[in-house]
Fold each of these.
Amino acid sequence: MNPVLQVEDLKKHFPAQGGRTVHAVNGVSFSIAAGETLGVVGESGSGKSTIGRAVIRLLKPTAGRIRFQGRDITHLPESACRPLRAEMQMVFQDPWSALNPRVRIGDLIAEPLLLHTKSSRSERQDRAEHLARRVRLTTELLTRYPAELSGGQLQRVCIARAIATQPKLIVLDEPTSSLDLSVRAGILELLAELKAETGVAMMFISHDLGTVKLISDRIMVLYLGGMVEYAPAARVFAQPAHPYSQALMSAHLPADPEAVLRRHVLEGEIPSPIALPPGCHFASRCPVAVPACQETAPELRAVHGDAQHQAACLRIAEGANRIPETAHG
Amino acid sequence: MTLLRVEDLHTHFISRDLDNQIRVARALNGVSFALEPGRILGLVGETGAGKSLTATSIMGLLRPPARVVGGRALFEGRDLLAMPEAEVNALRGRDISLVVQSPKSSLDPLTRIGDQLIRIHRAHRKASEKAARERAVEMLASLGIPDPARRMAAWPHELSGGMAQRVLIALALMNAPRLLIADEPTTGLDVTVQAQILDLLRDLVRRTGIGAMIITHDLGVVAHYCDEMAVMYAGAIVESGPVRQVFANPSHPYTANLIGATPERLRLGGPRTVGGPPPNLFRLPEGCAYRDRCPQAGADCATPPPDVALGAGHVARCHRVAA
């Protein structure tokens, strides 16, 4: 079966002051199948959100190819993208600013139906009620305004809007980051149910490693706009191959005092995406880098012959990619 | 001596509505906890539980309409809430330091960071400009800031989030305080930076024997960096105790629900988590404030719940907990 989304060598550069260029995304390739959740992790400035926006064509890619349900949408004009968005939806981090404060909740949920379907007012109203119940909002909220709802309720409204047109792909950009723990749990449970019910493909962008681990089937680790590792979720956490993934995973604090931490401290600051260093972008901070890393840009390769697990590091082939253990109190 | 002992702290927001009726939001309803030197206490809870308000109440930084209406905050035996303003001023920034949220907006944007460090030092200690400058450079170096002498001349806007947070911690530590209160010290920072900042804080507490209180909503931070924890709900501490013990045996239904909602414990497709907005502080129910959301609530929950001691300093405030 064809994947819902197929991205090849995607690049996105932004112009910066003085004729310089911000290299936000530098050649990433991945695919998402129906019913699959791809987790995208990385620190600020790693290009997570840019990738999310580019794949649903809120941004125009600089280079590469994006195929949605087999169709090349890389250079589709905006007018042709609009009808396509019935099938590809996005949920943003901040539900307070994602919803028009002057529109009632019921109309907000019905809005995608108004834009993308030929349906009567009463049909849309029925459907909005159904969607509200599906995301576990009481239907009396439909006549309220966004300011009267809590953050968790607003994020449910955003999810109801996203699923209204039965899309094949939903890009979720930090959908739970601004929510409290118990509210966040409810949203994650809802997303898991929706995926099981509808088989929608999801791209889940987050810096919260615990959440990504829980909800994702596969994970893509980004550093400075490049993919450093791409593997099944459990594998990335248990056996991260790329030194950056190792450092990132070691900084994750599971909410369990009995979990043993293996700490790898990274020295130095992340290089500027305006003046990217040659070779491996992580080499300047990498504890296991050798001079060759500064010269040759590593490609994504299968780790130990396992095509499911890919990482971009020269030192994996020599078996020298593990950061040595340091004592941690 | 106990470094900080807070007893039955009550803070209300008292205002008048459009009909000129007095409205009272009971934001803190009897907060009590203690912090020993050399220990790290994690104060956790969700939005609106009163975590930050607890810190600002203790530090005497409340602005109207918020007002402390009852309770004591004993710092080394002296009640901060009953002290004349001048004495509190002398303690604040010297013996008690606060690291606030959002480092970028907490630094003076028009002063070089070195001058900010020197200023806070000389405001409280008799030191020459030169001695203060040397101390500031040392402090930046000890917080892992590369090339500290040159960084002294940096402006706040030139710093990354992690650097700004380190400078803020340096400011808090310039006068060698005995109590450090850090309000969400790592929220908004990347995980690798978060780990570095927390390592620094913990090493500092272990090395110098000061007491620290970390206010956070992140149970991962509590699990790995705190010795004791106190869980807040609707302006009261519902459960407190040694971190490992509370995680292993969460006894208040709210704590159990909160820990159960962490990604580590959450089972997608399992029983649903109880979530929801915090109760209305203008109309807090009598008795247990959690009873509307509590799956175990009964008729007796309409009366104030007792603090039940569970051994080794583990306490839960609930009718359903058996000692």
Amino acid sequence: MVSPNPQSESSGHRFQRRGFSFERAIRFFFASNAGLTIFILLLIIVFLLREGLGFFPGYRRELEVYRIAGLEFVDISRKNLSAHEQVTSLLNRAYQAEINGKCCNELRRSQEASALYSTFSDQVGPTRDLILNNPAATTGGDAGMLAVLRTNYEAQRAKALTNLPPAPHLSVAERQELIDSLRNRPAEATEEPPIVAKLNAEFAAARQSHAEPLQKFRETIDNFESAGMDLGSIVMEMTESVTATKEALQTADILEKDRKTLLAAAANAKDPIEREKLIADAKAALAEKPDVEGPMATLMEKKPDCVKVHEQLVTSVGEIFPNLPGSLTQANASRYLKAATAAWPVLISDLKATPAKISSWTHTEPVPLSAAFISFLTGRSWVTGGEWQDFYGIIPLAVGSLMIAIVALTIAIPVGIGAAIYVNQFAAPREQALVKPVIEFIQAIPSVVLGFLGIMVFGTILREISTFDSLSWVPGFPIDERLNIFTAGCLLALMSVPTIFSLAEDALNNVPSAYAEASEALGASRLQTAFRVMVPAAFSGILAAVLLGLGRVIGETMVVLLVAGNRIKIPDFSEGIGAFFQPSHTLTGIIAQELGEVPLGSVHYRALFVIGITLFVVVLGINATAHHFLTRKKK
Amino acid sequence: MSTAIQIQNLSFAYGSKPALHDVSLDMPARKVTAFIGPSGCGKSTLIRCINRINDRISTAHVTAGTIKVHGIDIYREDINIQELRRRVGMVFQKYNPFAKSIYENVAYGLRIGGMTNRSDLDDAVEKALRNAALWDEVGDRLHTSAFGLSGGQQQRLCIARAIATEPEILLMDEPCAALDPLATLRIEELISELKKKFTIVIVTHNMAQAARCSDQTAFMYLGKLVEVGPTMKIFENPSDPQTEAYITGSFG
Amino acid sequence: MFNPENLIRKGLPKGYFKDMFVRGLLGGITYLMVLIAVLLFGKIIIDGAPAIFTSKFPFVDIEFLTAKNETLHVFDDAKGARHQLPASKYNEYITAHAGQQIYNEQTFSYSGGGIAGPIVGTALLTCGSIILALFFGVCAAIYLAEYAKQSPFIHAVRLAILNLAGIPSIVFGLFGFSVFVLAAPVITATPVDRSLLVIPFFIEGWALSFQGWNSSLMAGCATLACMILPVVITASEESLRAVPQGFRDASLAMGGTRWQTIRKCVLPYSLPGILTSSLLAITRVAGETAPIMFTAAVAAKDDFPWEGLANPFDILSSQVQALPYHIYTLAARIPSSEYTQRAQFGSVLVFLILVAVLSFGSMLLRAKMRKKLKW
């Protein structure tokens, strides 16, 4: 009998594994690849935090400089100045809107005629310029060349005259008159055709006549505007001095940082001569602390003047405002007037509260770290560029992202879910085979292509549609900017519909067919089965689909960067729903736009990382909730 | 009318694959007719033709013959399918209550039929649950989820749902296949109660069940109706040798 | 009392109009969406076709696809004829017609020449990132599908995959920028001051410095690979799981090791599925702009990435043009006019055709796979 264990005892039984084998190594290799995902995720979190958390101390110091240099003090008055300017602007807009509305017909006619003329000029302009500049025209030089140019001009003119835009407010005869005058005049002519001049004059006359009854309004506005002049000049005076103080403080900060870097390098230097040199450089960089108290004292002396100016303004505004007309005839003019009238009590109360703020303001109050957090999370302006003061407030960006998401989902949810219900419950297999690949193709379209379409095609179409008279009742029409929240929202809807569609359709598919069978066996029609049984059963899956669509919309960058208009300002809600037709910026777009331009390590740079962290957290939260609904469904 | 269902020379196919060949039989009203036979013999197909639930399968179609319910040809052009299915209820092999409350499950058939009055619905739901012998167990928790019930209770809930609209005919496709013996017993007791009001057609794999519950039994094999007759006769004295072979367990 | 006559339908069934209305509404919504998609892309096709299709053989404007990107010069000569020339030809013209006056000169950046640079750049980026993602992703999927049992580690890995899949692309851009561009390890003799960490070697002067790869092909590929890693892992795991357990059992029962089983009995059958899903990943990678904006892409580049290099490996550290970034530049940075239309719509059309080919290709492959794989 052969022993089952021929080897020596130390190597163990034949079936036993011997130590660290190749298999274990392979398994470890694969496991480490799996662990790579955890590593990458951690890396993302760590680096985002590393770059982003440094933002808050830096921003805190900037807010501190803002206070101790006195800019905060000046801004108390400046805020009132801007509010005053805004009300002035609203009143002016109301005035113009009223007049333009009343002579809207003359305005349109004049605009259309001018547009026709300028289109024509653009098309023939270059050739005409060549003719004018050609030496032959004046001194009789190369006549042959001139002849060629003239022939070109005639050809271009003929083509241009067939290529003119429509002019719905001009009569056929008037349009023809304009075209004839352009056709018949010599190439060198540069003055306006007579009919254009005539329509412009008509418009001007109409404006004049409608402006007369509003004379008192005009005077009131002018009075209001000039009432703010004293405030404006005192703000300007203070601005100059505090800006100088701030620059001094910032230079001192930079030198201090240099000094610290040099000292650190000196500590690391191995060569004693080099170390001496570095320490000497550090000493040289030690600047004097800038004088803050001196300028501040001068600034504080202005306090009584400020107070006085404000009190005067309160009185004058109080006297002027009752002179405003109660109402206006044009709809948008009324809206502006109403907004101005609503703003007036706010302005008065702010002005009245200001003297107390001015008197009590002191530059010695400390700025804690939490101030940086609060200013970031609740700040209503994001201003960078360093002219006055940089503010990093996330609200305008968050509002922009949210409004675009609202537009996108308002369109995408009904379309996506409706299409899913249709394709899953009602469509014939041939229809399914047509619709599903198309939707999958839409999903594969890169976002930059959609952004391109938006900026080149869709925005312009939308703005043109908004100029139709028949649609002028829509708030916000006609649209000023073709790149705005609504355009971006529509394109994002196009992007998110496939996501919502496929997930909702999956959810409907996963409802056991036994439900549909039972429902039909009870005598329900297809419609009743679909809406009373299938959709409620798939509800949590459909909800997950919507949430994932929301996550996609908020996380999208290229479309909003190209199409949303890139204005960092909370939209003006005085327009009501019309606010959706204003441009705005987004959390994602701001990073894409500004990261390439900021200096590494600056507060601005780090602020972008904090926005990145915010995005990360928000989108992750949405996706986690969606996932929760998806898995909860599986009973 | 004493004959509830008349199947007349019915031939049925899925696409090009035939499933039923020339089946003819009558099922009397307020009696239980049972179908027995080995797997794949076509008994489920036949029963699903009676309420035309096979229409859900696009390739399924009648190749010859027809079915008459209470004298009306149900395969005629102008048949009202939804009304047919309200008059002919169905209970499936695997109980399938909707993901709704007990009350809403039972009330579903009534709601889609247009009943909206809350008290009418309440009465009808209670009546159906009593008839299905479920009221005592769930009467106090009508608005909880149907999935909180045991298997046997869920099947009785499906029965309650099917009889809520008071159909004339109740089709049961292997109703006890997914249930344990105790629950099976309760369902069989229920059937003997229900047959006082409804015509019942039951498909079953369990010959003993057919023997216990039914008045008339039909044996099917490979899509053909081999023999039909009073239950006692089929089980004690079958005419056809194939029937005898099946009853005694030689095959299937 | 039951009246059998009620079984016969008189006139239209109850609720017929409501049924038709709802069906029509939903169907209308569905087809409206299809229609809008068709319209928008029809516009691109109509406006882009003149740029890349010609009427003569080979019907495609080869020059557009193979010429480098240049600035477009538009001017009139003394006869009033308008010329549109890319920069290189413009310079030739000027030297050929030295002394003649030209008028009304305008320049349009990025609008002349062709798009060979962006095409090449996108190809390089896609290849590099797919290779990386496939390597690491398939190995991770093998672990998840073949080796793993329920454990906290596996739970953490799955959670990480789920989270990574949901991160917005611009956050990946930030990640790639702060890690690969600014902090990735490099072996160099002259570490930069801002380096994160310097580990000196014992060889004279050389050190491992975590100073980043700068904006380069390497950094771009790494960032993109991280981005599609979750997609590749999920799809690969699915393909691996689709292989019947019986194959593995048979191999193991004959004494094969785990690795042998995977290598011979599982991987070959799951490779088609893995490759199909990598097509989808390629589509995604080719279309992304945000991650490469700060890690690899540059708007204007005179040479192809392999030209003008000191040594061949420098191609990894050079910046590249990329098709989606090119389209972004064309859309956002230059004014729109009749002269730029060719470049703008032509580029987008080429890009769309690429995406369409890849996407339909993957759909077809998937359908074919499903039919072929009948175990």
